[in-house]
Amino acid sequence: MRKQVPLERLLYFKEQIGFDAKTQELLKKHGHKIAEHKEDFAVYFEEFFRGVEETRPYLEVQEYPGHLQDIWKRWFENILTRDFDEQFVRWMWNSGITHVRINLDHRFVNLGYCLARRFCNKTISSSIAREEMAEAMMAVEKALDLCLLIETEAFLTSTFQCDSEVIKGIAHQIRNPITVIGGSVMRLKRSKEITAGAAQDTYDTILAESRRMEKMVRDVSSYNEVFHRQSTWSPLPLQEMLQEVLEGCRKVYPVQNLELQTGYAPRAGQVLGNPDEYRLMFRHLLANAFEAVDPENPVISVQTSLDPGVARYVLVEIFNTGKISGIEEMETLFTPFFSTRAMGTGLGLPIARVVAQKVKGNIMLYPASKDGVVCLVNLPRGGLD
Description:
By secondary structure, this protein is of the alpha+beta class. The chain has helices at about 5-15, 20-35, 40-50, 55-60, 65-80, 85-100, 105-125, 135-190, 195-230, 240-250, 275-290, 325-330, 350-360; strands at about 235, 260-265, 270-275, 300-305, 315-320, 360-365, 375-380.
């Protein structure tokens, strides 16, 4: 789904904004002096966003302390010291794509650039000779304007592309059941003599395809809502949510002689996020396990633990004795509208991954050492002690 970088258009922006060879020379002249303050900038940046309720959780659930500060240092230094060539434009473009992937509210991106502009102006006033302040500020202003323009173009293009892909997927997926329904109705209409059994089969087909379309509409609505809704970071009881969803799945997907194993680590008792979105995520993940489990050896296991690699994260491991052909297929299952089941919508796992990514978590599928498949979810931990 990644769109090719529109270099010609972005370089046109560079021309229109007035970022010419002279601007580049002035940036080279003054940029390194300003970039010497990159550590101060990173601290200033983090302190500001720690004071914003919506962005504070992103800083509190960093996988590695100081990781974001390192990113901001490199960003600040690159903008002030690198040539604004095609390679740099690609780098800035990918920044916008990343902001879409992690579901970052673009208003905070704009705010970040405002903070960078404020910090640069203050630094220029204190570290650049008075007679050179105006030219230094002009060069930095144009650099920040161009970077924000490129990032915004990438952000909007990627967001539009995601929406466009969903719309195309809806059109394609709904066309199939409509064709089946239409064909079934025409057979009933044209048939002069039809047995009760044949009529019942046709009615069952129409009903099944109608239910498939209803499920498609529900899943598309959920996907769209989750994708565009702003993240929330409330502490939530993980075990209670998993048990609630498990009981629901056992009723909806009855499996004969099912062996259901659960194990909940006390210290992994809370996660951060939106309760409705987490329940939706676990419903899709557990429904996938119930539907895929081997009927000859039906075993499903749900275990929680602390992430051994990242102390601020919890792991949820969902195992089932089903089979998947290979690693490639496992990653493909996260592609919207791809499904291995005749009546599947192909949106369950994509919805689940979007929910996890919104709170800087992730979901992975991989073959188990014994026959079966493991779904591993890592989520930010609540109630840190």
